[in-house]
Amino acid sequence: MSLAMNAEELESFLAREFPQVVDDFRVESLSAAALTMRMAIREAHLRPGGTVSGPSMFALADVAIYLAVLSRIGPVALAVTTNCSIDFMRKPAAGCDLLAEARLLKLGRQLAVGDVLIFSEGQPEPVARAGMTYAIPPAR
């Protein structure tokens, strides 16, 4: 399947629709099969104990799947998360960015299902895995 939006268009969309988070995320790579997204880790993303917080990792997984869906269907701002299951498997390193590898497993007319692996940059083992479902609003 071809892409409806490229990485630059996705980042412009994110800046326009979600200016409050745009500085945290950057699309590293994009293909019809997968999207890799970087989250720039700052002090605000950390929790006691020197690790990245669970809500920050959820945000990365959520934005990565959202943009993976939009890369295929176009700029549909009202596509929304309807389900998320996240497994926190290892303590992420506090001193480096997180990378999310998002893959769409199913893209239908009303629902998209995807999987995200999250890594601390430079580490081979994932720190978290998320299964995400997005609802796609009907075309007008």
Automatic annotation (TrEMBL):
Keywords: Hydrolase
GO MF annotation terms: hydrolase activity
The enzyme's E.C. designation: 3.1.2.-
Name of the top EC class for this enzyme: hydrolase
Entry superkingdom: Bacteria
Domain spans labelled Thioesterase: 49-125
Segments crossing the lipid bilayer: none
Protein's name in the database: PaaI family thioesterase
Natural source organism: Tropicimonas aquimaris
